[in-house]
Amino acid sequence: MDLNEALPGFVAEAGDLLREMESALLECSGGTTDAEKINLIFRSAHTIKGSAGLFGLDPIVSFVHVVETALDQVRLGHVPMTEELVTLLLRCKDHIEALLEPVGTGGVPDVSLEGRGAGLLTALRQIAEVSAPGAGSATGSDQNRAARTVAAPVDWRVSVRFGPGVLAAGMDPLGFIRYLQTFCEIRALKVLDDQLPPPAQMDPETCYLGFEMELRTASGQATIESAFDFVREDCMLSVTPMVDTTAPSVRAAPTAPAAPAARGDAAEEPAKKQAAASGDSSAATAFIRVDAAKLDSLITTIGELITAAAGANLLARRSGGSELQESTSTLTSLVEQVREGALQLRMVKMVARSPGSKESCVTSPRSLGRRFNSSSVARIRNSTKPSWSVSPIPSPTWCGMRWTTVSSLRKYGSHAANPQSARSR
Amino acid sequence: MTIYTCGELKSRLLEELSAHSDATRLDLSHVVELDTAGLQLLLTARRYASDAGRELRVANPSRAVADVLELCRLGALLEPAAAASAEA
């Protein structure tokens, strides 16, 4: 299990999300604009962007970002979901599909895509801009992140130290920082190299670095933290709001970023956003994170167990002892059950769960209990709609962090992360 | 300079640095990719040089190198621009 397998998983999953997005959009085109549908569409886009970011698929990230921003405007009620917008969004959806295709097949993206994408984005920005009413949101910049930055950006101090194993696990800390750049302005950054050992003892494949950053973003703490979801267990991360002393900010920096009220009185928009977010999170509260490597090793062991049991069964039959045969066949059927159970466990979507819900998930046995009682195939990324329903075994595993060896990443790098450099290497 | 090549590069780099005890320039014009592993190798090389009383600077950074150094606010690693362009 490695990134080679992870990537098709991502493509398959993004495909699922796009199909959901499409059907939700089609329902919207009937004139009904129910908030749940719009939320679903928004979340699909958001998830695709996030995942694409982790795979370094920048063209997808930047395109989906604008789509997501427009959807956010719709979600906040600033832009109506008109027929025109629905049509445009459907075309954007097709475009994302087209962008995904070469990723899936390892091919080279069609150059004409770029122009088409730019055209769609311009149209999208026009709709979202023109119809965005009110002083609050219409300070509109042309930038990609219009909606996000308009909502009163806040400064954050982010300090992250990566575990020694992250490089060998196939992750590039710089990638996380680049991803942060998609929704944050990095105002300052310091590479923490104090853990770097003397040159002679330095192991090139061990990560010694950390980063200290000052970010300005309208996205909340949870969003910043979620950028590190894929290394969460292997890094020390602290995200704290900065008390704004130097930068001339329109609004006071919140001292308690978690309290919606503290944001609300400064600007109406974040309050709405917060409300929308909390509405979301009530639905998307419970997530569980499973170490896929452990699960894998369990399944491997069970595979061996099955072989061993079959061997014992055969020997028992040859030996002719009926008691022995009976006991081995009981054993075999039990092993089968264990195997079934393990495979079902693996069908769980091991997805980076909603930021901020980690603790509640881990510490709330009730929510865990409910999850597992409801079905053995737990729907981890729960939402109002089962947007992450169970799919066949191989596909959901991509996000299971089973990134084992460096060598296995070569193939990944060569067809996805950075085609040019891979070729010239 | 990536995780794939760093193992080999590290020994080569340090060998080169000790073989040329007066070297202070690292020409990175042919680097097509620089990741975190490459970056910390670069920082290690700098430390190695500074332990020997030298200041190591990057000359002719390729696009990939320049991007990372900019992202990480490590412009100080570069040779002063004038020197770099004069060499180029």
Give an overview of the whole structure.
The complex is a heterodimer of chains A (425) and B (88). Chain A is α+β, with helices and mostly antiparallel strands. Chain A has three domains: 3-147, HPT domain (Four Helix Bundle (Hemerythrin (Met), subunit A), Up-down Bundle); 152-266, 2-Layer Sandwich (Alpha-Beta Plaits), CATH 3.30.70; 292-414. Chain A has 17 helices and four strands. In chain A, strands 2-3-1-4 form a four-stranded antiparallel sheet. With 88 residues, chain B is mainly alpha-helical. Chain B has a single domain, classed as STAS domain (Transcription Regulator spoIIAA). Chain B has four helices and two strands, in the order αβαβαα. A two-stranded parallel ribbon of chain B has the order 1-2. In chain B, helix 2 (36-51) links the parallel strand 1 and strand 2. Chain B starts with 5 loop residues before the first helix and ends with a helix. Residues 82-88 of chain B have low confidence and may be disordered. Classes of the chains: A alpha+beta (425), B mainly alpha (88). The A-B interface holds A 162, 167-168, 170, 172-175, 177-178, 181, 186, 188-191, 193, 196, 198-200, 202, 204-205, 207-209, 211, 406, 409-410, 413, 418, 420-421, 424-425 and B 2-7, 9-10, 14, 32-33, 35-37, 39-41, 43-45, 47-48, 51, 64, 68, 71-74.
What is the count of β-strands of chain B?
Answer: 2
Helix content of chain A: 55-70%
Total helical elements of chain A = 17
Rg of chain A, nearest Å: 24 Å
User: What low-confidence regions of chain B span 5 or more consecutive residues with pLDDT below 50?
Assistant: 82-88
- What would you call the structural class of chain B? mainly alpha
CA(first)-CA(last) distance of chain B: 21 Å
> What share of residues of chain B is helical?
40-55%
In round numbers, the mean pLDDT of chain A is 67
CATH architecture type of the largest domain in chain A: Up-down Bundle
Please state how the strands of the largest beta sheet of chain A are arranged side by side: 2-3-1-4
Pattern of helices and strands of chain A: HHHHHHHEHEEHEHHHHHHHH
Strand content of chain B: 5-15%
The proportion of strand residues of chain A reads 5-15%
The CATH superfamily title of the largest domain in chain A: HPT domain
What is the third-level CATH name, the topology of the largest domain in chain A? Four Helix Bundle (Hemerythrin (Met), subunit A)
- Could you give the distance between the termini of chain A? 25 Å
User: In what order do the strands lie side by side in the largest sheet of chain B?
Assistant: 1-2
Could you tell me the radius of gyration of chain B in angstroms?
Answer: 12 Å
Fourth CATH level, the homologous superfamily of chain B: STAS domain
Number of domains of chain A: 3
